[in-house]
Write a structure and sequence with these properties.
The protein is of the alpha/beta class and 189 residues long. Helices cover 15% and strands 31% of the residues. The strands form 2 sheets. The protein has a 7-stranded mixed β-sheet with strand order 4-3-2-1-10-11-12, with no helix packed on it. Strands 5-6-7-9-8 form a 5-stranded mixed β-sheet, with no helix packed on it. Strand 6, helix 3 and strand 7 form a beta-alpha-beta unit. The chain starts with a strand and ends with a strand.
């Protein structure tokens, strides 16, 4: 099962379309780790900012989409989005692996450790920072796809990720440049 993983689109229809037409072409499902529609008061308007067009595109997407609520998402967004926007975290069980999605950690530094100990996810997907990250912590792959619209990647690359979960228990994540589709980093466990 191959997932396209995206976060922090912040209303950019352009970023969503580039991901679907490019790296997400052929994926089985899409995980959105939050901050779907609104750009937030601290952020500039991203390229292709059109929240209604983005909502319509998500609603018409033929690939199943699972969405975790971000700090810039609101209950009103659910009125235009036909996919549930789940809070405080989304949990998917796929190919024998538990995938947990939460936009951002609020609170003490120990919160992540407590969640990992309580729910035992094999993959923990997060967003919020707009900086991509992939690392293994104990038995869990931590994955932040960065942002395809308002990136804070050190070299300015707009990023998304792909997550492959195999029936044999192999988990592979790839971080991709949205524009070139170049694999920037990859991790397997």
């Amino acid at each position: 099962m191959v997932y396209g993983v995206i976060s922090d689109t912040h209303g950019s229809f352009t970023a969503w379309k580039k991901a679907l037409d490019g790296p997400f072409s052929g994926v089985d499902r899409i995980i959105h780790a939050g901050d779907v529609f609104y750009h937030g008061t601290r952020n500039p308007l991203p390229e292709g900012y059109d929240t209604l067009q983005l909502a319509e595109a998500i609603n018409l997407c033929t690939i199943p989409v699972a969405i975790a609520m971000g700090n810039c998402d609101s209950d009103v967004d659910q009125m235009v989005c036909n996919m549930p926007i789940v809070h405080p975290f989304l949990v998917l069980d796929v190919e024998g692996a538990r995938v947990m999605v939460q936009h951002w950690q609020r609170g003490e530094a120990t919160e992540l450790e407590e969640l990992l100990e309580r729910f035992y996810p094999q993959v923990f997907v997060t967003g919020h920072t707009h900086v991509p990250e992939m690392r293994i912590k104990g038995e869990t792959l931590i994955l932040n796809p960065g942002s395809p619209s308002l990136t804070k990647h050190p070299d300015g690359k707009k990023t998304i990720a792909k997550l492959e979960l195999s029936a044999d228990g192999t988990i592979r994540a790839s971080l991709l440049d949205l524009d070139s589709q170049e694999v920037l980093d990859e991790i397997t466990m």
